[in-house]
Design a protein that fits this description.
Number of helices: 19
Length: about 525
């Protein structure tokens, strides 16, 4: 039968060409459908992990295995039959000692309650003789009381009977002139919103339960007015951050209901700019009505140095900076493919080979973090740079044979485009492999956004940026944000501008860290 078909095709070349074109068309269509099926399967797998899976991107159980991830010859490569067997003491991991009750309670304020007999009961009702104390029993408990206290502040005036002059001690100024809120109450509202992600309407309901009728509008006004007082701190923090030569940056969406010229459903943005691990801990936030790169350019116009960022191209507009792109974002492209593969196909895949390169780079980076800056720079040149170059060459080779529209092809193209600027991380011992510091800084805002959903006005969004900046900077420096805000609001309210010593009251000033450290005994 095949001979007859071949004879027919030879006798009819037009028919042969038609069938050949038809076959080619069907084959192309099959390949297209395969790519579409792969894309849909990949997207479905990623969506399922997002909804139902863990947020962790670990591919191994412990860090030691990262060195040999996907290495099928691990046993052969690491064998040493003459090695001395480890002792029990070496292989049995000691359990971390439990924290004692005394250690848990050491930072709490304390009061003593004594349960004692009334004086009239200190005589034996049988013998009619005085009782003698022979011992006591003590227990430790925790008491939390949330209550509102109305404070009656009184300033007493004195008069000199001879010259008729008047004398009195003036009341300290309140952070909000003419208001009723003390700095401690304002600090509570601010921290509950920015650190505890508690929306103002929930705070309002909570205050009603303890007898305070504080409307959401009142709480909102307090936050905005407090931010105006604290703006001088924010501006100084910004000046200090821009004086550094390394900054991490990131951005996330924000919905502002009453924004001029925009629908209520439109997206606005909150940006974060964070200092390096080797500088004072500073986290700043800025609200903008859009995501245009000119916003980052304007905020960073006085900054020169290295800028850690993700793949958003808007940061390309920032002048006088060297971009250091994020390895974690590159890794995620391959990780999403890796976890979507059947387990029996993971080990021999190109994706697993890419993951192996990346994980080895991370292992070396982790090992370098405790070194001095100069030592870390040298370590990068010796151990990490050759591995990155090898990975770069591998990617360039794979790009030639990968289908550009496939998920794997897109991951390879992304890696080829961004690895050169990721490798700027090698230029300085202080630079990081990823932009996780900025992502961690933006996370509290993202968590809060899930609860309060939106800002009502641009003024509210701008005040949130200032307050988030101060509270999150407090947390980065491990200082108590309640106590710091109460202190600094009082300080600013009771000192003239020319009397304010900003360097002494910043949330990363050493004296502030010493005085308000969260681990300090009260």
């Amino acid at each position: 039968m095949n001979e007859n078909i071949n004879k027919l095709l030879k006798e009819n070349p037009d028919l042969a060409d038609y069938i050949s074109d038809l076959y080619t068309g069907f084959n192309d269509e099959i390949q297209t459908l395969k790519q579409q099926l792969e894309a849909v399967t990949f997207a479905l797998s990623k969506m399922n992990r997002t909804v139902f899976g863990t947020s962790s991107e670990k591919t191994v159980k412990d860090t030691e295995e990262e060195r040999n991830l996907f290495n099928l010859n691990e046993a052969e490569n690491n064998q040493n039959l003459n090695a001395v067997e480890p002792t029990i003491e070496k292989v049995v991991k000691k359990r971390k000692s439990k924290t004692t009750k005394a250690e848990s309670f050491k930072n709490l304020e304390s009061r003593e309650v004594i349960y004692d007999l009334h004086e009239s009961d200190k005589t034996c009702d049988k013998c009619d003789v005085p009782l003698v104390e022979v011992g006591s029993k003590t227990r430790e408990t925790i008491e939390v009381i949330k209550k509102a206290v109305k404070v009656m502040e009184k300033s007493i005036t004195y008069k000199c009977p001879k010259c008729n002059s008047f004398h009195k001690l003036a009341m300290p100024n309140l952070p909000i002139p003419g208001g009723i809120a003390t700095s401690s109450l304002l600090a509570q509202v601010i921290v509950d919103k920015t650190a505890n992600a508690l929306p103002l309407y929930r705070q309002s309901e909570d205050y009603k339960r303890i007898g305070l009728n504080l409307s959401r509008q009142t709480l909102s006004n307090w936050m905005i007015k407090s931010s105006l007082q604290l703006e001088i701190i924010f501006n100084k923090m910004k000046d200090d951050l821009l004086d550094k030569d390394i900054i991490h940056a990131d951005e996330t969406t924000l919905q502002v209901l009453k924004e001029s010229g925009k629908k209520a459903s439109s997206k606005s943005y909150m940006w974060t700019y964070v200092s390096s691990n080797y500088d004072d801990n500073i986290a700043l936030y800025e609200y903008t009505s859009n995501r245009a790169g000119k916003n980052a350019k304007a905020f960073l116009q006085d900054f020169k140095g290295y800028l850690h960022v993700d793949g958003y191209t808007g940061y390309n507009q920032v002048a006088n900076v060297t971009l250091v792109h994020c390895m974690a974002h590159l890794r995620r492209k391959f990780y999403d493919i890796y976890v979507s593969l059947p387990e029996d196909k993971r080990g021999n895949s190109n994706t697993s080979e890419a993951m192996n390169y990346i994980n080895q780079i991370y292992v070396f980076d982790r090992d370098s973090r405790d070194l001095s800056i100069d030592e870390r720079y040298e370590y990068k040149q010796i151990h990490i740079k050759p591995l990155m170059i090898k990975f770069r060459d591998w990617l360039n080779e794979k790009q030639l044979t990968s289908a550009p529209q496939s998920s794997y092809g897109k991951a390879v193209n992304y890696a080829v485009n961004y690895l050169p600027t990721i490798m700027n991380y090698l230029n300085d011992g202080r630079l990081e492999l990823d932009n996780n510091k900025a992502e961690r800084a933006i996370k509290p805002f993202v968590i809060g956004r899930k609860n309060w959903l939106f800002s009502n006005t641009p003024n509210g969004a701008r005040s949130s940026a200032i307050l988030y900046s101060i509270v999150q900077t407090c947390l980065l420096n491990k200082i108590n944000p309640y106590k710091y805000l109460a202190f600094v609001l009082d300080y600013l309210a009771n000192n003239k501008i020319n009397q304010i010593k900003l360097n002494d009251v910043l949330p990363y000033s050493q004296n502030i860290i010493d005085d308000f450290n969260m681990n300090k005994e009260q």
